[in-house]
Amino acid sequence: MIGTLLTFFAVGLATLIVAGIVLSILGTVLSLGFGLAAFLLFKVAPVLLVGWVVLKVIDRRSGGDSLSASDRRWLEGEK
Known about the structure:
The chain is an all-alpha fold and about 80 residues long.
């Protein structure tokens, strides 16, 4: 009877230890994931957006079609 109770206690204790380790690893992974997502969303994305807008404004001001005649010939494969 006492052996059975000690076995149940040992299995329960081992289960709690393993569950704690698994949950701590899961929490660490989720924390890293959310931290990376927040960094990309709030630090990198605004810089990319501003750069994209600046390039679009510069492209519109320059007329958009700025290939020289030699560039056109090179792209078309003529020598």
